Amino acid sequence: MHQDLDFEHAYSLYRLNRFKEALDVLDLRKSKDPEEIARRSRLEAQIQYRLSSYDSCADVYGQLHKDDPEDNGLLVNAVAAHVAGEQSRKAMALVSKNKEALESSYELCFNAACALIDEGRLKEAEAHLARAKELCTEELVEAEDVAEADAGLLEDHEELAAIRVQQACVLQRFGKEDDAKELYDKVLRQKPTQGHEIDVTVLAVACNNVVALRSEGKSLFDSLKRINVASKESLEHKLTRRQMVDIACNKILLLLQAQKLDVAKKDLEKLRQSYPDHPRVALVQAAIAHREKKNKVCEEVLQTYLASRPDDAQVLLPLAQLYTQQHRHEAAVEALAKLPLGSRTQQTTVEAIVSLHNRQKKTRQSRGLLARSDPVLVQE
């Protein structure tokens, strides 16, 4: 391969989803030309993102933005990498340093909203998404040469679909499930306009979230069909690591509800091979054990994970709930006490701890009488 073509070679490998090979080729020759270095760095960042190396990706984009602070696209991508890597605080710290860019970039508003959702700051996220929609509509009016009075005609534009899905996610977190479902369904029913289709990753997320809204008693067949759409192999290199895990976990839980235990176990094994240290994978493994009424195995799965990550709230909360269901109130309190301070002081957690303490007290006073049978449901 001629040295002058190694960038093109690396880019071709990247487009073929051969990411590790692309990185190797990209490192074959170092350039002293600043423009060439920037071009290579951008490609490197994109490859790192596809390899789920989100910290490395964010570092590269962060440095590129320092070198070229006028390019808001670099800032948008750095924030996106932090969000994808579940580093919402780093994402918001970067946004805070560049607040003026929020007034001109709908992509940055959108990414900031995603970080705020992760932090549970739903009102702020809602406001950022509203602003993102305004800015995006303004850009579309200009790009599509539409009169401002006719801006409503762009309401179903594919560029707005991701914002709509994220707005539905906020409504879902607020407990406004009917409103959320209406928005998801509207996106999923949209027809392509002028040959442009909604991004497949947006549709996958909408499908997954609609499944999460499914009430008990609703059609499992319809939910399984939706989750299969969301988890098809063609999306493997387009969804983030977190999206892949969430969709795969939801699929396994649906299979459990459909009494397809063997299929669920096979899917779990694939998931464990791909993401062996992910907390949600441990939770699904525990859920399967719980469905099989193997409570001891369920507890061991959660405890094994916590042995190396003792303060993981995603696993501590279900463990506390398991103990509560078994009327082991003291063990449940001990599990909740290990939560990070931010999680431990949330209202629902404090209420759960107080309730458990009260139950312990009543049990001691009753001198052997059975504790109340209704469990404390601890939620994030």
How would you sum up this structure, described in words?
This protein is mostly helical and 380 residues long. Among the domains are: 94 residues, Serine Threonine Protein Phosphatase 5, Tetratricopeptide repeat, CATH 1.25.40; 71 residues, no CATH class. The chain is built from 20 helices and no strands. Helix 6 runs antiparallel to helix 7.
Observed structural traits:
20 helices, mainly alpha, Serine Threonine Protein Phosphatase 5, Tetratricopeptide repeat, TPR-like_helical_dom_sf, globular, TPR_rpt, Signal recognition particle subunit SRP72, 380 residues, disordered C terminus, 0% strand, SRP72
What is this structure's SSE topology?
Blueprint: H1 6-15, H2 19-26, H3 34-50, H4 54-67, H5 72-84, H6 88-97, H7 106-118, H8 122-143, H9 161-173, H10 177-189, H11 200-213, H12 220-230, H13 241-257, H14 261-274, H15 279-291, H16 295-308, H17 313-325, H18 329-337, H19 341-344, H20 347-366
Helix pairs in contact: 1-2, 2-3, 3-4, 4-5, 5-6, 5-7, 6-7, 7-8, 8-9, 9-10, 9-11, 10-11, 11-12, 11-13, 12-13, 13-14, 13-15, 14-15, 15-16, 16-17, 17-18, 18-20
Please state the overall shape, judged from the principal axes of the Cα atoms.
globular
Subunit arrangement of the protein: single chain
* Class from secondary-structure proportions: mainly alpha
> Would you give the CATH topology of the domain at 216-309?
Serine Threonine Protein Phosphatase 5, Tetratricopeptide repeat
Q: How is the main sheet built?
A: none
Mean pLDDT: 83
Unreliable stretches (pLDDT < 50, length at least 5) are 361-380
The number of distinct helices, counting runs of at least 4 residues, comes to 20
Strand count: 0
Rg of Cα set? 24 Å
Protein name: Signal recognition particle subunit SRP72
InterPro entries: SRP72, TPR-like_helical_dom_sf, TPR_rpt
